[in-house]
Amino acid sequence: MNLCLFRVGKRLTALIVLTALGAGAAVAQVTAKDAWVRTTVPQQKATGVFLRLTALTDSRLIEVSSPLAGVAEIHSMVMVGNTMQMRAMSGLDVTAGKALELKPGGFHIMLLDLKQQIKVGDVVPVKLVFEDRSKKRETIEVQAPARAGLGVPQADH
Q: What is the pTM of this model?
């Protein structure tokens, strides 16, 4: 009888521990991959950050920041005739199961009022804040390595 209770107690303890571990482990709803930031020249005060976002549930990128920039904004870029127009956006929707590419010539993150020049080999930390439909927020921190100007030329802001 005591041996039987010992086995049941041991199994119950294991079940409680596994349940507690599972409850504490959060699954990221949004993932960021292939992040990079465009290098700058001396005295340049703005650059772009580019990456690929995917989400398990519909989410919205609502805030961006970096300790290397006084201001960080979510931007869109479109060509209107022969003129490139960039606009700050209040947020950017990430549809569940569909990759969203932030890239030169399209949606991107602008880092403004840079505190230092960004050189090849530098890694720029960028914080992304997402909100799902239930208003639950998730923060992701990415490390964006600096690359020499690739893609569409950056417009002066």
A: 0.77
